[in-house]
Amino acid sequence: MATQARDIANRSLMTNSNVLSVSTSPTAAFHSPLSSLGASQLGRVVTQPKQLKPFDTQDIKILLLENVNQSGKDILKGQGYQVEALKSSLPEDELIEKIRDVHVIGIRSKTRLTERVLREAKHLIVVGCFCIGTNQVDLEYAAKEGIAVFNSPFANSRSVAELVIGEIIVLARQLGDRSNELHSGTWNKVSAKCWEIRGKTLGIIGYGHIGSQLSVLAEAMGMTVIYYDVVNHMALGSAKQVPTLEALLNGSDFVTLHVPELPETKNMIGAPQFEQMKTGSYLINASRGTVVDIPALINASRNGKIAGAALDVYPNEPGGNGDYFTSNLNAWAEDLRSLKNIILSPHIGGSTEEAQRSIGVEVGNALVRYVNSGVTLGAVNLPEVSLRSLTLDEPNHARVIYIHHNVPGVLKQVNKVLSDHNVDKQTTDSKGDVAYLMADISDVQPGEIKDIADRLEVLPSRILTRFLY
Ligand SMILES: NC(=O)C1=CN([C@@H]2O[C@H](COP(=O)(O)OP(=O)(O)OC[C@H]3O[C@@H](n4cnc5c(N)ncnc54)[C@H](O)[C@@H]3O)[C@@H](O)[C@H]2O)C=CC1
Ligand SMILES: O=C(O)CCC(=O)C(=O)O
């Protein structure tokens, strides 16, 4: 689909002055040392960002789902975009209705942007995943349609790692059960099968941003850390990489999963893997619900193979707060809820004020950069391409963005179209079958842009063309 309607130009190429909050206090903010210095103190010549036309920023329609943090909403509203923000996700048919109209959609982990949904998104140019995971988006299809996808690759990693540390202690001390008992009026003071975590072995599956952060925290609590990863990662502290999943399962008192949702990680922990775990060990899953075979976990808990588990993620998750977690959603839900020493949390690994605020700023800024200037730095499905901003000193310039099939001869054809003008700067890169070209051309009048657009439109390689001027 290559529609004229998705060719959005926009009024501003402004730089964003929001600061990224990585504070430990709810109110403090982190300022880059440079942000307190005026540009003149740095000896730079100040050039005003150029106001782009013909479209107003108010023409950009944005739909934010799943309670995106205020920091993200503020950045997008600050640009003058039309922002509609909903607290929960939407059922697929309602999503399709809404997505038809918007240029930008912001989601978290719940909203599935499948090919069926994206096919209807005739105006969509970019998706913001206000989270780490992007498994909920059909990235390949989006790229084929020229729709960029951004995420926040590590702003909530620390929050997940801290939750897991908490869960390790809560499981080792059966704290969830003791608390539930006392909430219902029963005093039950026990020490049998309650343990310190000092000296125990934590096995981390997936030693990426979260797994490695957790490794450091766990060692600080006196645990021994081993990890298994398909990639050979540098061990932090005294942690040791083990060669196989089986070696990790054999050697760990606590096993925790931090892998992405992939075909290879589906049911990565099932009946055979529970057999390989130590009797009386614990399993924690704060990655994706598809990674653990839950009926196998229920069996392993009932037959005493595992002494407890903590789950933050599920194959099917409710759409919003207040929805029920029952067998209507997952056939085994009631069995799971009835088990002893099982912590069930509603996908809150990344849900802290710090993480959500940082994600809002990071993804909000990425969306503004993409809409206003076409820069794809940080995109997960398109090549990462950047050009310095146009300024007021360059009044008759236009930026051409040409997303196209990665086939031979395209540059020659595009440059033929642009050849009546001076190409001041140009960059291009490809990722798989899709390539992204940006060019700033000078001495171009608004009337001439239509002509350039029309000529690019008909090139067979075209996926999507945008003009910013
Ligand atoms: N519960 C929650 O709220 C949150 C959950 N997550 C989930 O956690 C996952 C991990 O996050 P990050 O650490 O940031 O990801 P990451 O990409 O930094 O690390 C993932 C690691 O898993 C490894 N891996 C991939 N396939 C594997 C396999 N088959 N066997 C062993 N290792 C494998 C990779 O090599 C990589 O080192 C995310 O993909 C997301 O699904 C992320 C944030 C919050
Ligand atoms: O906070 C969310 O909704 C999703 C967290 C998560 O799973 C992620 O960041 O991948």
Please sum up the structure shown:
This protein has 469 residues and is of the alpha/beta class.
Quick tags:
single chain, 469 residues, Rossmann fold, five-stranded parallel sheet, 29% helix, 18% strand, binds 1,4-dihydronicotinamide adenine dinucleotide, ACT-like_dom_sf, phosphoprotein, serine biosynthesis, NAD, EC 1.1.1.399
The CATH topology of the largest domain, please?
A: Rossmann fold
* Low-pLDDT segments, ≥5 res: 1-45
Tell me which oligomeric state these chains represent. single chain
Our count of domains comes out at 3
CATH A-level architecture of the largest domain = 3-Layer(aba) Sandwich
The CATH superfamily of the largest domain bears the name NAD(P)-binding Rossmann-like Domain
Helix content: 25-40%
The global form is elongated
In spatial order, strands of the major sheet run 8-7-6-9-10-11-12
Helix count from the secondary structure assignment: 14
Q: How many strand elements?
A: 16
**Ligands (ions, cofactors included):** 1,4-dihydronicotinamide adenine dinucleotide, 2-oxoglutaric acid
Give a description of the structure:
By secondary structure, the protein is α/β, with parallel strands linked by helices. It folds into three domains: 49-151 and 353-382, NAD(P)-binding Rossmann-like Domain (Rossmann fold), CATH 3.40.50; 157-344, NAD(P)-binding Rossmann-like Domain (Rossmann fold, 3-Layer(aba) Sandwich); 389-468, ACT domain (Alpha-Beta Plaits), CATH 3.30.70. Helix content is 29%, strand content 18%. The protein has 14 helices and 16 strands. The protein has helices spanning 70-78, 92-99, 115-119, 139-144, 157-172, 175-183, 209-220, 245-251, 271-276, 294-302, 333-337, 353-373, 410-418, 446-457; strands spanning 61-64, 82-85, 104-107, 126-129, 148-150, 201-205, 224-228, 240-241, 254-257, 281-285, 306-311, 342-344, 398-405, 422-431, 434-442, 462-468. It has a seven-stranded parallel beta sheet with strand order 8-7-6-9-10-11-12, with helices on both faces. A five-stranded parallel beta sheet has the order 2-1-3-4-5. Strands 14-15-13-16 form a four-stranded antiparallel beta sheet, covered by helices on one side. Helix 4 (139-144) links the parallel strand 4 and strand 5 (148-150). Helix 1 runs parallel beside helix 12 (353-373) and helix 5 (157-172) crosses helix 7 (209-220). The longest helix is centred in the C-terminal third of the chain and has 21 residues, at 353-373. The chain is elongated and about 80 Å long. It binds 1,4-dihydronicotinamide adenine dinucleotide and 2-oxoglutaric acid (AKG). The site of 1,4-dihydronicotinamide adenine dinucleotide (NAI) has 32 residues, from helix 5 and helix 7. Residues 108-109, 131-133, 156, 350-351 line the site of 2-oxoglutaric acid. It catalyses: (R)-2-hydroxyglutarate + NAD(+) = 2-oxoglutarate + NADH + H(+); (2R)-3-phosphoglycerate + NAD(+) = 3-phosphooxypyruvate + NADH + H(+). Belongs to the D-isomer specific 2-hydroxyacid dehydrogenase family. Catalyzes the reversible oxidation of 3-phospho-D-glycerate to 3-phosphonooxypyruvate, the first step of the phosphorylated L-serine biosynthesis pathway. Also catalyzes the reversible oxidation of 2-hydroxyglutarate to 2-oxoglutarate. Keywords: Amino-acid biosynthesis, NAD, Oxidoreductase, Phosphoprotein, Serine biosynthesis. Its EC number is 1.1.1.399, 1.1.1.95.
